[in-house]
Amino acid sequence: MIAAPLHIAGERLMLCPSGVLLWPAQRLLAVADLHLEKASHHAARGRMLPPYDTRETLSRLAQALRRHAPSRVVLLGDSFHDASAEQRMAAEDRAMLLRLLGALDVTWVLGNHDPVLPISLPGQAMESLTLGPITFRHIGGAPLARYNEVEVSGHFHPKASLETRAGAISRPCFLADPRRVVLPAFGAFTGGLDVRDPALAAFAPRGGRVFLLGRDRLYSAPLGPNRLPVI
């Protein structure tokens, strides 16, 4: 996979087509919105979905961890789809999660779906995490507290559509401007919110850039003030 560099606040971040963000200087990997056990949540309410979302999501996370070998992982909230999701996990899925994270420095940023971290899991839970100029939180978009603060967040599941020579493509995407980065949702059963939606108006108000996820690369395009990606 070919990651795209993003220079922001004097730091070099890398955006991976898998949907994770890397901060090489910190050996840090950030990932947003796993929504583990979303299918079982809906099954309990009569909406029968294939019960494989957690296994698929964890398998993709394992690939990202093997590929990038971070020492620190920041999960940007909504890692679980609801407060009892960890209790519904299959034993082998729970063992896989513990195996993946057990040797790492793990920070669970709390989200609106998972405001409390299960005490059985490794790592620490926080409302937000600040390292140098960068603050990691679940829901971004509020005024930044410091003039040099940069925000990395999730929650909105951004996606965008681009017209290419091969036709239109619509994919989950990173959304970036000079002070904010919104990560795509990583979970197998997560939808997307178009970058033109008013809920994303606080991001890139003067224009920014979208990075659509491809199989092995990102498709990047500027995002104009009219919120339309253009190539």
Helices and strands in order:
Blueprint lengths: L3 E5 L2 E5 L5 E3 L4 E4 L6 H6 L9 H16 L3 E4 L9 H4 L2 H11 L3 E5 L14 E3 L1 E4 L2 E4 L12 E4 L4 E7 L2 E11 L2 E3 L10 E2 L13 E6 L4 E6 L8
Helix pairs in contact: 2-4
Please tell me about this protein's structure:
The chain contains 4 helices and 16 strands. The chain is of the alpha/beta class. It has one domain (4-223): Purple Acid Phosphatase, chain A, domain 2 (4-Layer Sandwich), CATH 3.60.21. The strands form 2 sheets. Strands 8, 9, 10, 11, 12, 13, 14, 15 and 16 form a 9-stranded mixed β-sheet that branches. Strands 1-2-3-4-5-6-7 form a 7-stranded mixed β-sheet, with no helix packed on it. A hairpin with a 4-residue loop joins β15 and β16. The longest helix is centred in the N-terminal third of the chain and has 16 residues, at 53-68. It is globular, with a radius of gyration of 17 Å. The model has no long low-confidence stretch (mean pLDDT 88).
What would the principal axes of the Cα set say about the shape?
globular
Mean pLDDT: 88
Q: Count the helices. How many?
A: 4
**What's the CATH architecture name?**
4-Layer Sandwich
Spans where pLDDT lies below 50 across 5 or more residues: none
Number of domains: 1
Topology as a string of helices (H) and strands (E): EEEEHHEHHEEEEEEEEEEE
Judged by helices, strands and strand pairing, the structural class is: alpha/beta
- What distance separates the N and C termini? 22 Å
Query: CATH topology, what is it called?
Result: Purple Acid Phosphatase, chain A, domain 2
Q: Tell me roughly what share of residues is in helical segments.
A: 10-25%
